[in-house]
Design a protein that fits this description.
The complex is a heterodimer of chains A (417) and B (311). With 417 residues, chain A is of the alpha/beta class. Chain A has two domains: 198 residues, Periplasmic binding protein-like II (D-Maltodextrin-Binding Protein, domain 2, 3-Layer(aba) Sandwich), CATH 3.40.190; 200 residues, Periplasmic binding protein-like II (D-Maltodextrin-Binding Protein, domain 2), CATH 3.40.190. Chain A is built from 18 helices and 16 strands. In chain A, the strands form four sheets. In chain A, strands 1, 2, 3, 4, 7, 14 and 15 form a seven-stranded mixed beta sheet that branches. In chain A, a hairpin with a 2-residue loop joins strand 5 and strand 6. Chain A is globular. With 311 residues, chain B is mainly alpha-helical. Chain B has two domains: 54 residues, no CATH class; 229 residues, MetI-like (MetI-like fold, Orthogonal Bundle), CATH 1.10.3720. Chain B contains 15 helices and no strands. Chain B is flat and about 65 Å long. The relative contact order of chain B is 0.12. The chains are: A alpha/beta (417), B mainly alpha (311). At the A-B interface, helix 3 and helix 17 of A face loops of B.
Chain lengths: 417, 311
């Protein structure tokens, strides 16, 4: 008897729930845990739900270290997210694994994407389809310690603008002890940090080269341009003795401790550097002698999960459109400190005049984006290339050739799968 | 027992169970309880092990369904120079780490056993590193090894006018630097086990030997070491497996360039971890796991055979 009543209650409950779901859709948004990103997204969700009372967005986060594994595992379990955040470099894997679906051109017209976003958005394009849109983008710039510049007799408001000036400024600011050991760096040498990006997308291009073929299937840096680019960075340690890999453990740690006059790092470091107990500034990455500049930009994009169908798909599209809107980008810049991915939202007079955002934004106009097939393995190739020169005294030319061969093997394995 | 069970169960139900003798019932109960851990182990340990063997013959990458590719992963592994370097590293950890840590811990245990002054306190000091998280310890050591101005060891070298050493930033010094911390971390446990072994040797043997006029060295060689053999065997196997599976120290001391510089500190476990969870090459990682499993098995069997009781 009691069972029967319980059963009736359950049936009523289920039908009530089913009725509810006909009116309200719940979609899941996944991203990794990073305090400010989670906060910003919570704000965006709140605003979105206010404007769309029939849609609720469930915000799911995972630690960065497990994030990719979770997304992949969810596919295997058949319970994927409706909107999912991914690093642009993971796109090939996500597409190959059927984790995400291409954006519907009727909802997200290709011409509009290409005219309104910075050109680096093309890293989300495969064939004729776009697979995701970024909210914010990151670029590199040269951070410098104004106090150390002043101590060395340099003008703290005139940071180096060319590569030659960079070396001169580093020589002026570096400090050695009586044993010849560096006690404060002129510029950090940190391949584990951003130096490998600086080498790949900036210095190689400034030397007239190109890191990869246009279809990304061939390594093309094993030439004079690649060699000069590599030597420019390793010379900082071996010839000019203005920096030392591993000093203070990491380049960014040395800069934070006030023991490095300059370091190359990205927008994502702004939060950490904010509390530096000294005055510091940011400037565009130095140009070469002919005034050519380049930059490396990267971003996390949001894509639509492969399992989203019907009204969930519709809701997911609405949500994706909102989080890549100018309004969302302004909030993101405010809370996270990452640059808007739309030109219109980014290149405002206020942003360009900002002494910190300005240089990063200028960098975006000429930035390149590397299409990684296995980001960590490719990064490792570059780190090893530098270490062979710095630690084993190998000829840079041989080290470069070996790196090109190793990285080609990684590309081949991926594209021949 | 039986009568209580009899009272509780109604006569109608008193069938099969009551016909068993107490002895049989005991056996059934015992197996009933034993079945739990067995089922648990089969589910949690043996099934995944078998699964790993199967995966090692596939090209599974988490995303696409696995296809059988035979011995391709093993062919790729044995042709990979990185694997052989990692193999050498792993055995360097084992072949240097195990004997050094055992000799060291035996010597310390042997003398600590005779110390009466603050015995408990000193023993606790030695044991302390074993209680600490390997990751935390590795980070502290990582800072000890830094160049000037923050590296404690290099600061000391500077003080005595010695040249600073690169330690973790050197292809020759990085592996020994990490091994020292691993040995130090395991020392406390080995000392405690050795001391327990030493205490278990009846003091009458020593008294008899001294009455017969045996020297300290002879006592050590003829009485202490032979009677410590079970303890030694246990520690050799235990410590070898520990060094073959070394991961925490290496990973945490080289997070920016895991297993670096230039893979000179990378052990097999770290290679497996990277293949599986950053390259998502699960089949290849499974093949590496099978190789590690085989190495562990062979090394343990050889040790048990060499150190077996000859009676």
């Amino acid at each position: 008897m009691r069972n029967r009543i319980g059963m009736a209650g359950l049936v009523a409950g289920i039908s009530f729930l089913a009725m509810g779901s006909a009116q309200a859709v719940e979609i899941e948004y996944w991203q990794y845990v990073f305090d400010t990103r989670v906060k910003a997204m919570d704000q965006l969700i709140e605003k979105f739900e206010e404007a769309n009372p029939d849609i609720t967005v469930k915000h799911v986060t995972f630690p960065y270290a497990d994030y990719q594994t979770r997304v992949v595992a969810s596919k295997v379990a058949g319970q994927g997210p409706d909107v999912v955040q991914l690093f642009y470099g993971w796109l090939d894997n996500f597409v190959a694994g059927g984790l995400i679906k291409p954006l519907d051109p009727a909802v997200f017209p290709t011409e509009k994407i290409e005219s309104e976003f910075f050109p680096i958005v093309s890293a989300m394009k495969r064939g004729d389809s776009y697979y995701g849109l970024p909210t914010a983008v990151r670029s590199l710039a040269l951070f410098y310690n104004k106090q150390l510049f002043e101590e060395a007799g340099l003008d703290p408001n005139k940071p180096p603008q060319t590569l030659d000036e960079l070396v001169e400024a580093a020589k002026a600011t570096v400090k050695h002890d009586s044993g010849g050991n560096i006690t404060s760096e002129g510029i950090t040498v940190s391949w584990e940090g951003q130096d490998h990006q600086w080498w790949r997308e900036v210095l190689i291009r400034q030397n007239g080269g190109q890191p990869y073929s246009d279809d990304n299937k061939q390594v093309t840096y094993n030439d004079e341009a690649g060699l000069s680019a590599l030597k420019f960075i390793t010379d900082l340690q071996t010839v000019h003795k203005v920096g030392q890999a591993g000093f203070m453990d990491e380049g960014q740690a040395a800069f934070r401790a006030g023991l490095a006059a300059m370091t190359i790092d990205g927008t994502f470091r702004l939060g950490a550097f904010e509390s530096n107990p000294f005055e510091w500034g940011v400037t565009e990455l130095p140009a070469n002698a002919d005034g050519v500049r380049s930059n490396y930009a990267s971003y996390f994009a949001n894509a639509i999960g492969a399992t989203a169908e019907g009204e969930e798909l519709e809701a997911a599209q609405k949500f994706l459109a909102y989080i890549s809107s100018p309004e969302a980008m302004a909030i993101w810049l405010d809370v996270v400190g990452e640059l808007p991915a739309r030109k219109e939202a980014a290149l405002t007079e206020k942003n360009l005049a900002d002494p910190i955002y300005g240089p990063f934004l200028k960098g975006l106009e000429y930035a390149h984006t590397t299409i990684f097939v296995d980001e960590q393995a490719q990064r490792q190739v570059a780190i090893d290339m530098a270490n062979r020169v710095l630690l084993q005294g190998q000829d840079p030319k041989d080290s470069l050739a070996q790196a090109a061969q190793e990285e080609q093997a990684i590309l081949d394995r991926f594209y021949n799968k | 027992m039986a009568s209580i069970a009899g009272q509780e169960s109604p006569a109608g139900n008193a069938g099969l169970w009551d016909r068993f003798s107490i002895r049989t019932k005991r056996v059934i109960w015992a197996w009933g309880f034993l079945a739990l851990p067995i089922v648990f182990y089969v589910g949690i340990r043996f099934y995944p092990t078998v699964q790993a063997f199967w995966l090692s013959f596939t090209d599974w990458d988490l995303l696409r369904p696995a296809t059988f590719i035979g011995l391709e992963n093993y062919r790729r592994l044995f042709a990979d120079p990185l694997f052989w370097q990692v193999f050498r590293n792993t055995f360097t950890y084992l072949i240097i780490g195990t004997p050094v840590s055992l000799v060291l811990s035996f010597v310390i245990a042997f003398y600590l056993d005779r110390v009466r002054f603050m015995h408990g306190f000193i023993r606790a000091l030695y044991f302390l590193p074993f209680l600490t998280t390997a990751a935390a310890m590795a980070w502290v050591w990582r800072f000890f090894y830094q160049p000037v101005p923050i590296g404690v060891i290099n600061d000391a070298l500077q003080l005595f006018g010695l040249p600073q050493q690169p330690f973790l930033r050197s292809v020759d010094q990085a592996l020994p630097s990490i091994m020292v911390t691993a040995i130090w971390a395991g020392l406390g446990f080995q000392i405690i086990i050795f001391m327990a072994g030493l205490r278990a040797i009846p003091s009458t043997y020593y008294e008899a030997a001294r009455i017969d006029g045996l020297g300290e060295w002879a006592i050590l060689r003829k009485i202490t070491l032979p009677l410590l053999k079970p303890t030694t065997v246990f520690l050799v196997v235990f410590s070898s497996i520990g060094f073959l599976r070394i991961f925490d120290q290496v990973y945490n001391m080289t997070t920016n360039d895991p297993g670096g510089p230039l893979n000179t500190t990378k052990p097999l476990v770290l290679m497996i971890f990277q293949t599986a969870f950053s390259s998502y090459d699960m089949g290849y990682a499974a093949a590496q796991t099978v190789v590690l499993f085989t190495i562990l098995l062979v090394v343990s069997l050889i040790q048990l055979w060499v150190l077996r009781e000859r009676t």
